[in-house]
Amino acid sequence: MIRDFKTILTALAEEVQEHLQDCLKIEGIPLDLQKAMEYSLLAGGKKIRPVLCLSWGEMLGADRKELLHFAAALEMIHTYSLVHDDLPAMDNDDLRRGRPTNHKMFGEAVAILAGDALLTQAFFVMLGSSLPSERVLAACREVAAAAGPQGMVGGQCLDLMATGMGSMNLEDLKNMHALKTGALIRASCTSGALLAGDSADVHKAASYGTNIGLAFQIVDDILDVTGDEQTLGKPVGSDLSSDKSTYPKFLGIEQSKAMAQDSAELAKACLDEYHGPQKEFLKSLAQYIVDRIY
Hints:
Helix content is 72%, strand content 1%. The protein is built from 15 helices and 2 strands.
């Protein structure tokens, strides 16, 4: 089952990667900007957010090919957030996915513009979908909310304000990560449901996305303590050195692992009423997120 899951995950990620290459074949982009956009967008990764959109949409009856525009756009938004998060004014990271970060390669100014370009181009790509316009608009609204001040950007602001202050408690940490990390993961699931035209299933998709988003962040916090740079493709121990609040800091490693597994189980339970290969894939994906710590 694990082998089948990884095969499917790899195939979906490759399909998204091919589509992303087409998304940047646009006339009129300055060459330096295009290179910076491609450098981060095409750097690999498992493409979890677009895969979630594809899987939820297909499970609810949409054609996967018609979902690819939206799936690719989600990866563009995620990539923009990484480019900006790595900047000296934010997390000041030198490595991302085992390579120098965007600003180390192209300079801070071009990195900022590359992130801006990826974000705005993402909505251009989303709105090029051939699905019914009311579905596309509903899904776009969902993603915009998740990416903006009431989602990912707001969460990053809370993270910056809390770093080194020592004033955050566990509930504050959960709320912050629900915005910074969880919102776009949740929207990846709900946008798939909305694009399939199944608004009644959006609450199930949201609950699944919320729970795997929590599991994902807990695991990331654990790996920052227990992982290694070669495997992760970025420095470990950066949360500790920056005096950031993390789940291991509040709960310890073992209790954090248990919390991640509980979140994965809650996500799996959201799929009970569904059938088909996408259901089994999404269940395996929830567990795969947690299994990274073992």
